[in-house]
Amino acid sequence: MSELTCIIIGGGYAGINAAKEIQKNLKKKENKRLIKLILIDKNPYHLRKVLLFKPAAGNQDITIPLTQLLPKEFLFLQASVKKIESESKRLLYLDAEGNENSIRFDILVIAVGSIVRHPSPIQGGLSLDSLESARKIREAWRTNLKKAVKETNMIERQRLMTIAVAGAGISGIETSAELAYFVRKDAEHLGLDSEQARINLINTNERLFPEGPAKVAIKLESSLKASGVTIYHQSRVLEEDDGKLTLSSGETMSIGLCVWTLGLLPNPILQNIGLPVTSDGYVIVDASYRVQGAQDVYSIGDCARIVDPASGQVDGKTCKEATAQATRLGKILLADLIGRPAPSHKGFIDLFCFGLGPEKGIVWMNKWGLDIIITGNLGKKIRKFTWDSASLIT
C-alpha cells in the first residue's frame, strides 16, 4: 500500500494544533496506510500573534521554533505557497532561498490564518501587526518618556506621556492594559510622575465587549480605569498627525503615540492560490471542513468560514475556536480515510478571556444559561493557560 502525503500550510494556532491531532489520529490502528506528514510555513517559528502587545510593552519573546512544537513524525518545510492545483494534487511554492518548487499531496490542510487590519498610511500612527511593529511601538514610547524627563513645558511633557490605542476589541483592551502597566513602571523608574502616563482607548461602540453581557463590560472598564486607561466610547480615530489625534466626534487630543489595533482580515494569499473564497475572502468549506470543489483539501482557523450546521452561527476567529477545530479535524481525516461518517462542526461554548496587564485578567463563560465571571489573579492565570495551551505549551 503506497504512502500518503499529508501537508499542512500554516504554523499558527490552527496549524500546530492540527499537526498534533492529525498525527495522533492518523497513527491509529484503524488506518492501515503509511503517512508522510509535512508542515509548511514562511517562517521557521510559531508566532504567538495574540500576544503581540507583549513585545510592544515589555519586550517579551513570543516566538517558538516550529521544530520544537511539531510531533517528531512531522517534517518542516520553510516556504511560501504560490498555487494549489487541487485536481492534480500539486502544491507550488518558493523555498527559503526563493527557488520555485512543487510537491504532491494526498491530503492538504489550509491553516494560513489572518492578517491584522491596517489603517491608511495617511492616517499616521503605528499598527500593532508584527514583531517589527511591536518593537517600534516599544521604542517609540520609551523614547518619548526619555524626552519627557528633559521637557520643562508641562503641556508638552504630558503629550509625550500620552498614548492613544485606536480600536477596543480584545487586542485593544489587552494592549491598553499592558501599556498602562509598563509605561507607568518605566516613567517611575525615570523619575517622572507615573500618574501622568496616560493611555487613551478609543472605542467605536457604546461599550466594551459588545459580544457579551453589559456586566462584563462594566468590570472590564472598571479594571482598565484602575490601571490608568481612559476610554472614549462611540468615537473613532480619523488620523494622527504630528502629535495631534483627530476623532470622528470632532474632538482632538495631543498624544505622543497612536497605536492601531483594528482587528483581523483573512490572509490575502487566499485570493490567488486557487481555492474558492467568499466575497470577503474566507475559504468556503462544508460542515466537516472540506474545501468546496477540492477533493481531500481541508481548511480551519481564521482563514475559513466555518458555520455550525445546527445553529447557523459562524465560528469566531480566536485561538479557542482554532484549537477545537483542529481536534475535530484529526477525527474527520481519519473518518474520511477509512470510509466512515465524519464528525460535523459544533460551535464552541461562549468563552472569552482578557489579559489586563501582568497582574489581572477577566474570564467570562456562559454555561447552562448562567454568566460565569472570574476576575483578578485567577482570571489572569486562566488567560495565561489559554494562551499557553493554544501554543502547545504545557
Describe the structure.
By secondary structure, the protein is α/β, with parallel strands linked by helices. The chain has nine helices and 24 strands. The chain has helices at 13-26, 53-57, 66-69, 131-150, 154-160, 170-189, 214-227, 319-338, 376-390; strands at residues 4-9, 35-41, 45-47, 63-65, 74-85, 90-95, 100-104, 107-110, 114-116, 126-127, 162-166, 198-202, 229-232, 237-241, 244-247, 252-254, 257-260, 264-266, 283-284, 297-299, 304-305, 350-355, 361-367, 370-374. A seven-stranded mixed beta sheet has the order 7-6-5-2-1-8-20, with helices on one face. The protein has a five-stranded parallel beta sheet with strand order 10-17-11-12-13. A three-stranded antiparallel beta sheet has the order 14-15-16, with no helix packed on it. The longest helix has 20 residues, at 131-150. The chain is elongated, with a radius of gyration of 23 Å. The two termini are 37 Å apart.
Major sheet strand order? 7-6-5-2-1-8-20
Q: Alpha-carbon distance between the termini?
A: 37 Å
Give the overall average pLDDT.
95
Strand portion: 25-35%
Largest sheet: 7 strands, mixed
Report a brief summary of the structure.
The protein has nine helices and 24 strands. The protein is of the alpha/beta class and 394 residues long. The strands form seven sheets. The protein has a seven-stranded mixed sheet, with helices on one face.
